[in-house]
Known about the structure:
Keywords: Amino-acid biosynthesis, Metal-binding, Methionine biosynthesis, Methyltransferase, Repeat, Transferase, Zinc. L-homocysteine binds at residues 439-441, 492, 607. This protein is an alpha/beta fold and 762 residues long. 44% of the residues lie in helices and 13% in strands. The protein has 28 helices and 25 strands. The strands form seven sheets. Strands 1-14-13-12-11-10-8-2 form an eight-stranded parallel β-sheet. A six-stranded parallel β-sheet has the order 15-20-22-23-24-25. β5 (117-119) and β6 (126-128) form a beta hairpin. The longest helix is centred in the middle third of the chain and has 22 residues, at 462-483. The protein is globular and about 75 Å long.
Amino acid sequence: MLKNNLGYPRVGAHRELKKASEQYWAGTISRDDLFTIAKAIRRQNWQLQQDAGIDLIPCNDFSLYDLVLDTSLMLGVIPQRYNPVLTQNPQNKEVDLYFAMARGYQKDGLDITAMEMTKWFDTNYHYIVPEFTANQQFRVFSEKVFEEFNLAKQALGTVPKPVLIGPVSYLLLGKEKEAGFDKISLIKKLVPVYIEILKKLQNQGAVWVQLDEPFLTMDLSREEKDAFIYAYAEIKKHCPNIKTLLTTYFDSLHKNSFLAVSLPVCALHLDLVRAPGQLDEVLKLIPGQLTLSLGVVDGRNIWKNDYIRSVGHIKTAVAAIGADRVMIAPSCSLLHTPADLDLETAINPEIKNWMAFAKQKLNEIKELGEIMEGNTPLLLQNIKAISARNLSKLIHKQAIKERAAAITDADATRTSEFKTRQKIQQDRFKLPLFPTTTIGSFPQTDDIRQLRAKLKKGVLLQEEYDAEIEHATIGAIRWQEDIGIDVLVHGEFERNDMVEYFGEQLDGFLFTKNGWVQSYGSRCVKPPVIYGDVSRPRDMTVRWSSFAQANTQKLMKGMLTGPVTILQWSFVRDDQPRSETANQIALAIRDEVVALEAAGIKMIQIDEPAIREGLPLRKADWDKYLDWAVKAFRISASGVQDETQIHTHMCYSEFNDIIRHIALMDADVITIETSRSQMELLEAFADFKYPAEIGPGVYDIHSPRVPAVEEMVSLLEKAAALLPVGNIWVNPDCGLKTRKWPETQAALTHMVEAARAAREIF
Ligand code: GLN
Ligand code: ZN
């Protein structure tokens, strides 16, 4: 049985690539230095995979920024606006063009915007969106895939397996930049270039080639299905001897099962972690020659593999089609897991024994192979670890389980409906029309971050740290009062991150030192690990919110992160449904909400910026997810009296298809990101007749630009044309933690003036 890996983390176990590329961008290291570091990471990755006995070792899965962008460069899909990068400055090389496309280019008298970036399916990885024009041409432009093949071959002394994004998925990942054509119609022009590449790889000695077609797990139109049929028939016709491995992941093939098994490829990869049920389905349909690559080791999470379950799948497949047609693999590329658990020296050893990062997952693939050959001790050892986890007192807290099991609809429902609450709240707060507020955080300056670093190192005492944070908080309160903001925030100076801050205070969470996962380019995130039943041993934010409220006569909003966002931005336990974990977190947040209310906080914001990204890949599955996600939010928000105002905040750009559920969240006020779309997003709310109050963001916080008063007034006029004036709040798009103070102060001063101007008009 061949052991097959789909891809490996490329940032390096110590984030070497992040550091090197940032230095290269800053001009402090040379291009050659960058390449040397990038090569070293690859060599190390290949070595690790070879040591783990992986037979099909991927190459070209490495990327300096993003694999989709690599593909665009490989295929010559380079928007015209980047032409001057190479022509204007003869010093620039392909890699500079590449980074210009990724990050924009402001040098040599040029000012070229970056390409768009968006989330890779339902992961937190972001890719660079290919841009297609109506008469899009394709040609082999970048030689990276060939170079990397040679490099890997040299390093390994065996034949590596090049990884390419398949032609159909590549087109579907992109965007038409002109009207009047459908990107999928480009397939006929694109496939010949893929064939050219495959032939060249074959000449270099390639045997297996991996073609990633994750879109096979999504809803496909007739044209898209035809594109698959066309592309793979052509590839088979022109490259009959290359061994094609078609990979799918993140969901089941579902209705596309027959299509997928019918394509003339040598092997088909299935994600059996996300979608174990599809194995039987595929085995029923599988034609005589097709090999199956079984994705049994979870590439999306950090838990030790349950060998009994994996061996079950492998045995099922072997019984049906024979061992020589079965490969053992991770569910998807290991890109989405941190590099190496061995580097985590501070994790409780009992819990560490339940975990596996990328390096350990390679070993799991190897061990599964050995178990299939009869190594029973390995299986027994795994059974022991898995059952230790299943029974551990660290995970299982009866009282938490009972409380979550006892949640009723009443727990997820406010006492009165919105209209009644709104009346009570208006009488209580007496806010002007167009009340002004902000989303929570104020600039996290170096000074503030330093404080936390010093506290961690022990050079600053907790009292000293607290005093500094109090000082910053009071400063922020005073100037919010000075410029005349109506509802204040405390500024979140005490928080490192909106999820980490809560995770650190909740039971059931742990934090890694090096558990970095690439988010985009050089940006990595270090998600917390939810390993057990979640509870709130003590108040989390009451101290800071009541301190802030005590220092002003004005209304001070309490500030919390919602259960779905905490879940979404963590590695979640896989031994119970996500909805159950969400409910436990919701109860913890609910207790905090109630505690804030008891401490005299009259408005409480529960941020849920990640509700949308949790949506399943297929629309048919959306309702089920949204039902429990909305309910989790409602559980967290419904413990308070009618007179307490619950805010929520979301920052993304599509509400149309989930507006009904957003309304079901039943927040009194929602603040959203709208400025970049010029309030277009509000139409979804208007069309739906969204019942509650809305703060459409009037300025983009992603840029230091200070918008003029008139600009914001005109946005408010647009909003007023769409929504009842009495329901409109005035606020920025999102929190201000990434901004500097001068622009923040200037922009918010303008924002308050804009609100005053709007009050004059209406
Ligand atoms: N309250 C958070 C902040 O202002 C919200 C951040 C977010 O929406 N991502 O920073
Ligand atoms: Zn936001």
